[in-house]
Every structure is written in C-alpha cells, then in structure tokens.
Amino acid sequence: MNAAGSWVIGLAIVYTAVLIFLGNVVRRRAQSSEGYFVGGRSFRPWMVFVCITGLFSGSSFIAIMELSYVKGISAGWYGVAEMVHVLIIALLLIGNFRKRMMVTISGLIGDHFGRVALGVAGAITAFTFPMWSVATTLAFASAVSAFTHIPITMAVVITALLLLIYLQSGGMWSVVVTQTANNIMFAIMFIIGGIAFFIKPGFSGLAQLAASKPAMFSLDGVGLQLIIAWFATFLINVLLAQAAFQMALSCRTVEEGRKGLLMAFAANIIFIFFGVLFGLAAAVVAPGGTRGMVQVPLYLAQVLPAPLVGLFFLGVWACALGWGAPCQFSGATSLGRDTMAAINPKITDAQKVYYTKVSLVVLTVMMIIFGILRSEQAAWWNVFAWTLRNGATFAPVVAALFWPLATKRAAVAALAAGFISGLTWYALGHWDPAKFYLNIHPVFFGMSMNILALIMVTLVEKAGQWQVGGELTAGKKNLAMGAGILTAAMVLLLVTRFGWLYKMGLFGLVAFLVVVGCFCLVLSLVGPRELEEDCGSIPQERPAGV
C-alpha cells in the first residue's frame, strides 16, 4: 500500500466513526414509526436538498467521471437525464403523493390492491435495492483497490456493514445527517479536484486532447442508443423512485419538499461539470486505461500530495454512501414494513420498525452476496435492478393512480409477469451486460408484459362491467388523442424502419412505446360501465310503510 492508499484508508476509518456517531445522536428522534420511516414529516427544504443530492447527484458523478474518461463530454447526458427526472418529481408528483401520505411505492400498491400485492411488491422492491447499492460501491471499490490492493469484494463487505451500523439507529434521521456530511465532502472533493486540474493538465491539456481525440468532445460520443436508454430509464422511473419519494415526502409541506427538490436539480449541474472535467483530465494525464475509476486515482497521484488524494477519494466514498444508504434503508422499509404487514395485518408500528431493522441485516447479506457474484461489472447490477423492479411495479403504480377499474388479481399478475419475464429475458441473453436476446433490452420486454398482464386480467375479470368511451373529461380526451398519435407513429416507425431500429438496438424501446400508447388509450377510454337510468320501464315507488 502506497502513501495515498494509507491516507484513503485512514480518512475512511475516521469518517466512518463520524457517521456512526451522527447516527446515534439522532436515535432519539426516530423512536416512533413515523419518525423512523419519514423523519416525522418534519424535514426542511435544505434537508430534502442534501438527501436528494446525495442520492442522485453523487451516484451520477461516479458514473459520469468513469464514463467521461473513455467517451468524453457526452457522458454528461446521464446527469441531464437524472436532472429531468428530479424536475418532473418536483413539479408534477410530490403534491399528489404527499396527499396520500405515501411512505413507499410498494405501500401505495398495497393500499390500492390489497395484502397479496403489498407483500409481493415489497419483496420485489427489497430484492432489487441492494443491487443498486452494490453497483455504486463496486465502482468506488475499484478505485480503492488501485491504491491499496484491498480486494474489491472486501471493500463491498466493509461498505455494507457500515451502512447497516449507522442506519440501524436513526432510520431516516440517520440518512439526513449522514447526507449532510456527505454533501460537505462533495464540496471538498470538487475544490481538491479543481486544484489538481489547474496544476495538470489545465485548459491547454484539454485543447491538446480535443486536437488528438475530437470524438471526446462530441455530444453523442457514447452513442444515441445509450443516451436514449438513459432518458427512457429515468422517465420511466419518475413514478417509481421510492427512495427519492421517501426522502422528499419527509418534508413538512409540499412546497418545502418541492423547493428542496428544485435546489437539488440545480446543484446537479455542478456534479455533471466536475464529473466530466475530472474524467477528461485523467484521459490527458493517465491515458491508455479502460476504467475511469481506476485511472482517475492514478492521475491524482501524479499531481497531488497523498493527503489531498485521500481527501478527494473520501468525497468519492461519500458519493457511494450517499446512494447506498437511502437504497438500503428504502429497500428494508419495503421488506420490514410492507411485506411483513402483508403477512401479519395486525402488526404494530413498533414491530414494523423492528422488522425493518432486521431487514437491514438481510439486505446487508444480500448486498455482500451480489458483490461476490459479479464484482467485475458494477453497471450490470444497476441495469438488472431497473429491469426487475420497474418491470414489476410500473403498471400497478400507474393503475393505482389513474385506473380505478384495475383489479387486485390483475395487479398481482402484473407484478409476477413483469418480474419473471424480465428475469427470463436476461437469462435468454446469458446475463450479458450489453448484448441482449434479440437485441431487445430486458427492461422493455418486462415492462411490456407487466402492462399487458394488468390490462388483460382486468378486462377479463370485469367482463361486462366496463365500457369504452362514456363521458370523458377534457384531460382524458387529450390523453387519448396524444396516445393515439404516439401509437400510430411508433407502429409506422416499426413497419418502415424495422431493420435500422433492430440494428441500433431501439426496436425494443419503440415496441414498448406502442404498448405504453395502448395503455394510455385504455386508461383514458375504458372505465366502469355506467348504470342505465332508462331500461324501458319506470321504476315503481315503494308502498308506504315498507
């Protein structure tokens, strides 16, 4: 282990001790169920800001910095897609979900579709969240390994245990205080990284890179397919961002929650800028590598003294923790609060907190197992988690919000169909991170089956109880018109450009948009059959006294 590695490990140990201390300080605020799960609905805007920034911006920074080393400035589109995602939640969704006093997405499904749906949705959600946690942790661990030669899997074990220790004590309050500490480390990281950039390579180095590798400064260098996939993933996730909702809905009022989200939206610009800048700087000073999270440490070690390198990577460590902590806590909430409530409807609030703490242990074990199973491909776990969670819960959430005709059996069928079909499609593609079966991304296949199962089971189960049309509001008419245009346009595109779409890997996305268009048509046009007032006879008045 070199000097920089010693500083990285030493500072990480000190920071870990601070986080554990902070988690215990706020223990008294998390005694009640509401205090533990949603901070007593008392968060101020700055609290929502640090939580959302730590969750999304920190993880985006790691992804952008790593990819920009190889692909250049186009890696920034990942952050832009995430910004759009946060903006939509702030402007359109937080008010609706706060009125419902929502805690989790799985809880929302359960409230509308009953115990079985609650249990299944909670279990699926809990199963996928450790995948997101381990994905970012693996990316950071690769950088630590470059300095310290500590095995990547050992770094995952250490991170998982740390998350368990400080989340056990204070729940959502632990999240907010540690996210505050993480945001302070982000600022220190940016300052140190900026100093390194001006020392070497500076703007002159970027000019030389632009001359020798102009593709690094192309806006579509990562490829159109990947950029579209980023935006599609985040747009789909708007309704399913459970960890984000759990933090934002801890606010005192809708207005304060929205303000915190908008502050996080603006702050993400900084993370995009520095993520791209540091990746490009490493490409100039330490070229020839394949992974930015390995080459950036090597670059900094050439430019900065060991203590500053250690502080910089303490900021990257904070990025990993800022993503992992909310994911682990939100997943444990679904398992301990929702799934256990489905098993035992008489469960008390105190028992829900207890089972959530037990669930944190279960998810810690799962996170370690995932890290051991596939430690060489961090990004794969992210995509796999999107496929399983979004593929299972998308249609039931939409139906719970917008389609009262949907049935309990249809919701359970949709959960199972989406989860199993996404898993099967990955298996057919031999679990490859980039080459999918029939060149169709598993998330689009899973979500399509999810939607179709919900529609078909509902219409069959309620045969004779639904109608097409009826009295439509202006909003439903507009939705139907837009959905019809979208569906027709996507079908035309499939028919006329099938070869190009298949080659570019966009066939699955366009086919999914056809299914989404049909789903929107059903939501707007198909509703409960209205009772006929005139059936050919005049209702008789009841005799007096009866």
UniProtKB/TrEMBL annotation:
Determine the domain of life of the protein's source. Bacteria
GO function term, MF aspect, one: transmembrane transporter activity
Q: Which UniProt key words apply to this protein?
A: Membrane, Transmembrane, Transmembrane helix, Transport
On whether Transmembrane is a keyword of this UniProt record, the answer is yes
> Localized where?
Membrane
Listed transmembrane segments: 6-26, 46-69, 75-95, 116-140, 146-168, 180-199, 227-249, 261-286, 306-325, 354-373, 379-403, 410-428, 440-459, 479-500, 506-526
- Quote the InterPro entries the UniProt record gives: Na/Glc_symporter_sf, Na/solute_symporter, Sodium:Solute_Symporter
Q: Describe its membrane topology.
A: Multi-pass membrane protein
Recorded GO CC terms: plasma membrane
Q: What is its main location?
A: membrane
The record, for Pfam families, names: SSF
Q: Which family does it belong to?
A: Belongs to the sodium:solute symporter (SSF) (TC 2.A.21) family.
- Record-linked PANTHER family: SODIUM-SOLUTE SYMPORTER-RELATED (PTHR48086:SF7), SODIUM/PROLINE SYMPORTER-RELATED (PTHR48086)
Task: Tell me what this protein is called.
Answer: Sodium/panthothenate symporter
The protein's organism comes out as Neomoorella stamsii
